[in-house]
Amino acid sequence: MRLAIQEDMLYGRNLREKFQLAxxxxxxxxxxxxxxxxxxxxxxxxxLVHTGLQASGINFGRxxxxxxxxxxxRERGLELLRQAxxxxxxxxxxxxxFAPAFFGTRIPDLSPYATANQLKDELLxxxxxxxxxxxxxxxQTLFIEPINRYETDYMNTLGDAVRVAARRNHPRVKIVxxxxxxxxxxxxxxxxxxxxxxxxxxxxxxxHNRRLPGQGFLPFAAAATALxxxxxxxxxxxxxxSPSENHMRAAxxxxxxxxxxxxxxxxxF
Length: 269
Fold this sequence. Notes:
Elements: E1 2-6, H1 15-25, E2 29-33, H2 34-51, E3 54-59, H3 71-91, E4 95-98, H4 116-137, E5 141-144, H5 158-168, E6 173-178, H6 179-185, H7 189-196, E7 200-205, H8 220-229, E8 235-238, H9 250-267
Helix pairs in contact: 1-2, 1-9, 2-3, 3-4, 4-5, 7-8
């Protein structure tokens, strides 16, 4: 497994300094944010070449809403997601991770015909169908990310994400196993990984308190063993603090990352 870290967690005056820090403390790659990479591209590619690090992927974050009730917002979200896939291809990264919906996604409940979440499933399947071959043509993968129940009432567990990914059964459609979110909504993190391992394409890492791995009580060694058991050998990317908005924490992280990376390596990552 290869360790990456999200760009906003790194301290430095520019991307070269940030990526050099990442390399010095033991990371193999960098995960970027879709909302930022458009104006970072040239500097990012220069810094990657300079340090020898790889781009692990792009996180779509809250950049657009592909499950909005409004058609214009859905189309805008899909356009932004396609752009993120192109940016990821330019960086030589694995693909784009996206959480399909956060609270505030207003899809009506049309019971008894269909609940709001059933409608979201159908919309998401339709969207993925239009995106999967686009991703494949560029050598990219779509990573569907379930997030915890405090951030959405849709798609909270690995099983929820697999429910959609399995319907497409496409090699370029995988899921994200985010250990922080899993700690909140999975009864057994290692068990969920083993059950759905065939669909796991990348992993996000933070401790149970969303601090750096090793600064809480999440069973990382058990998760690493389960990932190895299912043959996972992809990217494990740090996503801690306030994702995409960690610049104020970056100086603190700079003093703590080396110990955290050692903790992760010792745990089996």
